[in-house]
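To fix ideas, we quote verbatim one protein's residues and fold tokens.
>
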Amino acid sequence: MQFGAILRKMRKGAGMSQESMANALYMSISNVSRLETDLYELKAEILIKWCKITNNPDVLMSLYASAQVVDQLQPYASIITGTILGGFTWIF
């Protein structure tokens, strides 16, 4: 999953420059740029800090909710896959 565009939108929405974000995260400006262009691995710790700094808890909540849905559907993966391959697609 690529988050670069989301990170950039969050930073700009908070009125922050790459330099100010880099200072807040204690990292280089080039690493902030790499995160925003998906050239640097986004770790959970950085994502959490980024969300706190930009005041975007909704992003974390969305990711958490998505992860829970995936976990809940895991036991049914073979049924869903078999159904999709059989020509019928479930819509969630």
User: Anything to note?
Assistant: Residues 70 and 77 are 9 Å apart (CA to CA).
